Amino acid sequence: MDNFEDENPFETDVDRVPSETSSTSKVNISEPSSPRNPARILSSTSPTLSRPFPSSGTNRHPQSTYKSDFCCGRDQWLHSGEDLEILITDAQKTSLNSNTPYITYIIRAGNAEARHRYSEFESLRSSLVKLYPTIIIPPIPSKQTIGDYATKQAKAKEDTAMIARRKRMLQTFLNRIARHPILSNEHVFHRFLDGEVSWTEVLHSPPLSLLPKNTLKAPSHNPTDQSAASAYAALPSPSATHPLRHPDQRSVDSEIFTNKFANHLSGPMEKVTRRTLKRWSENAQDYSELGAALNGYSLNESGALAAAMEKTGQAVDTTYMSTTRLLQELEQNFSEPLHEYAQFAVIIKKLLSYRHQKHVQYEMTQDALENKRELLEEYEKSEREAKRLDEALSKGRVNGLRSPGSPAEGSEGQSQPQNQPQDEAEEPGSAYLPPHPGPNPYKRRAPGMGFLNALSYTLHGMMDVDPETARRSSISKTRETISQLEDALHLSAQDLKYSSSTIQADLDRFQRQKVADLREMTISMARIHRDWCKKNLEAWQAAKKEIEKIPDHPNKRPPSPEQRTVPGPSGLRRDSTATVNGR
Fold it and tell me: Which is higher by pLDDT, 490 or 99?
């Protein structure tokens, strides 16, 4: 475990306010991450109160300034400076606006009350993931498995234990968002808490309607910004498994630590916790049956023995009830938070995968830009060679027209024959013109190839066969592509820098939250077992007093002198061997 802690790349000091050394580029995540809400100043934190897990102080770090610009009443309530908590007061079965019944959860935030079903919580979280791709969005409880539907069939959605667990974990989800330094300012979240707003309208209106299909081709700080959509369209969409040429060491360390953290939680800790709770549950059931048997047996006896048997049965019943209570508290304050942190580990993996893809995107854009520049250099070299050849051919034509066709350079007594045509006389001085590069339509075709040759000739006629025009068009297109890639590379570099710094800062914040929550979980577990022991001790002490009132066996051997001198309760213990033997 010591090595596991030593490899932790995150900030672990709980008293530290946001990390300023998490990366080379300092980013304050309490400032707005998108220009949608320009004034995002946070309120100070009230002292932590003693409440069920998670307590309000575990997710919020102190802030020095208050927020003054509010977008709505929910925003003002969330940043009023008081220690507030969002509650899910009830879960009701309804069929409002639906053909089939479903469970709706009643949310109370201050004086506002909203009703939402599980699928709407799911859509809220998925929307926040797209709006803030560099922030750790808290998890929601898992969906029902196929096994649950197979075993419980139509009653799976009405399972009271599942509904109660969802109530607690959805309430934790809302409070974690409300105490987050950035997510608490999101107006989409405020509208979710407002019962007078239709959630369907929120999903189909800005900013959610402006979200791109692929967040990798959108700004990391504001995915709804469409001003640079053309430049982002030129960026590639790499896979999460694409290797990096120059990986960031801190990101690699974060990935290694997160994998270890996830393996510890989802592996030994969750398995042992589930097995422990299962055995506690079986033990409680055994105590329940044993208590009923002892109470029933006491009715067949009389006197002190009946009273002792009844008191023992009551002590066993108390143990059953305290064990049931222990199970409930362990599930609420240890098992559910442990499962939540296993979900957090998966979320962090996806966040680091997004950062990895942004880095790969930057490197791939660099490679594409270098390739296009090399291609442009080849095109320009070909253009220069073509110009040089054209100039050489032009000079050759001029010299050819002057020297062989000039009469002054010939002999004075010689003259051109009268019967020779003029074209043949000027032939040596004329320039040679190359034939058309396409196929000759008058060329004799092979049998059976007439149609294909005619089609080929037609296509050649439609195509631009002028190499100079094609070359210049390619140069123009390549220069335009290079310009787009340069803009895209600049945006990709900005996104990578912002993603790295913001993700690392939120990981540091999460690490402080995790340390505080795990501390609270362990203290809660110790308190639960202490209360269980105290309650059982009181019940069994009362049973012991009744048991001591049972008279000794009449055939009991009188105590020896040594036993008479021995003080304490050991001298009063009954001789079970003598009782069995009938002495």
Answer: 490
The Cα 235–Cα 363 span in angstroms is: 11
Q: Using the CB atoms, write b or e for 321-347: b if 16+ within 10 Å.
A: bbbbebbebbbbbbbbbbbbbbbbbeb
Torsion of CA 275, 276, 280, 281, to 10 degrees: -30
Spatial CA neighbour of 78 closest among 224, 229, 190, 159 = 190
236 pLDDT higher than 50: yes
DSSP letter string, 531-573: HHHHHHHHHHHHHHHHHHTSPPPTTPPPPPHHHHH--SGGGG-
> Quick check: 229 pLDDT over 80?
yes
Contacts of 359 (CB under 8 A, 6+ apart): 244, 247, 248, 251, 496
State the DSSP code for 436: P
Mean pLDDT of the 421-445 span? 48
Q: How confident is the model at residue 493 (pLDDT cuts 50, 70, 90)?
A: very high
CA–CA separation, 9 and 53 (whole Å): 26
Q: For 175-193, write each residue's pLDDT tens digit.
A: 999 999 999 999 999 999 9
Q: For position 487, what pLDDT does the model report?
A: 93
**Closest C-alpha to 364, from 279, 237, 449, 223:** 237
Please give the Cα distance from 244 to 528 (Å, whole number).
48
What is the DSSP code (8-state) at residue 105? E
Q: What is the pLDDT of residues 291-340, one digit of tens each?
A: 999 999 889 888 888 999 999 999 999 999 999 999 999 999 999 999 99
Residue 46: per-residue pLDDT: 36
Long-range contacts of 63-69 (CB under 8 A, 24+ apart): 63/30, 63/181, 65/41, 66/41, 66/42, 67/39, 67/40, 67/41, 67/42, 67/43, 67/185, 68/39, 68/41, 69/38, 69/39, 69/41
Query: β-strands 112-117, 87-94: how paired?
Result: unpaired
pLDDT, tens digit, 9 for 90 and up, residues 54-92: 654 444 444 444 677 889 989 999 998 888 899 999 999
- Asked if residues 62 and 14 have their Cβ atoms less than 8 Å apart, the reply is no
Length of the chain: 583
Q: Which of 215, 488, 183, 181 lies closest to 351 in space, CA to CA?
A: 215
- The values of phi and psi at residue 235, to 5°, are -75, 145
What are the φ/ψ torsions at residue 322 (nearest 5 degrees)? -70, -35
Tell me the residue type at 57: G
Dihedral-angle region of residue 109 (phi above 0 means left; psi in -120 to 50 means alpha; beta otherwise): beta
In the chain, the amino acid numbered 217 is: K
- Of 561, 563, 555, residue with least CA distance to 580: 555
Sign of CA dihedral 144, 149, 152, 156: positive
Q: Which residues contact 345 (CB under 8 A, 6 or more apart)?
A: 258, 261, 262, 265, 266
Q: How confident is the model at residue 393 (pLDDT cuts 50, 70, 90)?
A: confident
The vertex-242 CA angle with 238 and 245, nearest 5°, equals: 110
Residue pair 352/251 in contact by the 8 Å Cβ criterion: yes
3-state secondary structure at position 148: helix
